[in-house]
Amino acid sequence: MEIVPAPGAKLSKKGELSVFLLIYNAKINEANSPDVTVEYNFYNTQNGAEKFFNKTNPQSLNAQTLPPGFDPAAGMTNGQTIPLASFPEGDYRLEIKITDKLATKSVTRDVKFSVSAS
After folding, report:
1. What distance lies between CA 104 and its chain's CA centroid?
2. CA atoms within 13 Å, Cβ hemisphere of 108
3. Which terminus, N or C, of the chain has the lesser number of Cβ atoms within 10 Å?
4. Main-chain dihedrals φ then ψ at residue 73, nearest 5 degrees
5. What is the pLDDT of residue 112?
6. How far apart (Å, rounded) are the C-alpha atoms in residues 102 and 118?
7. How far apart are CA 75 and CA 115, in angstroms?
8. Distance between start and end Cα atoms, the chain
9. What is d(CA 25, CA 73) in angstroms, rounded to the nearest whole number?
10. 10-116 in CATH: which number?
């Protein structure tokens, strides 16, 4: 698989938004496994005001979901592909929240993009 960044932040309703991230330095338990949750929340921006639009189901990265032989030193990858057909044209902010349940810490990052008809 090859990951090619979008040349801009303007996306077509006919396409998809694909997000890929690397999670590192998660705390591990005695079984050498992390317990991390990733959430993707979408907000629509209109006239300078922001309104919650949609979210995906949270994704869990732990002993039950990671592959056998998982090496925490290598980090974890996560991704999500979201079809944009249901998004009205406009500006959006994607909030990505990663929660390390074992460390009881979280980090949030934002990605701004817009959706157009073409």
Report:
1. 19
2. 8
3. N
4. -65, -25
5. 94
6. 44
7. 32
8. 26
9. 8
10. 2.60.40.10
Helix (H, G, I), strand (E, B) or coil at 76: strand
Mean pLDDT split into 10-residue runs, the chain, 118 residues: 80 93 93 95 93 96 91 89 95 97 97 93
Q: What is the DSSP track for 90-118?
A: EEEEEEEEEEETTTTEEEEEEEEEEEE--
Could you tell me the pTM of the whole model?
A: 0.89
β-pair type (10-12, 105-116): parallel
Are the C-beta atoms of residues 59 and 37 closer than 8 Å to each other?
yes
Max CA separation in the chain (angstroms): 51
Strands 10-12 and 59-61: unpaired
Domain locations in the chain as residue ranges: 10-116
* Cα angle value 111/95/35 (rounded, 5°): 120
- Per DSSP, 74 falls in state G
Closest C-alpha among 61, 78, 83 to residue 70: 61
* Residue written as token pair 């309104």: 51
| Rounded-to-integer distance, Cα 52 and Cα 70, Å | 35
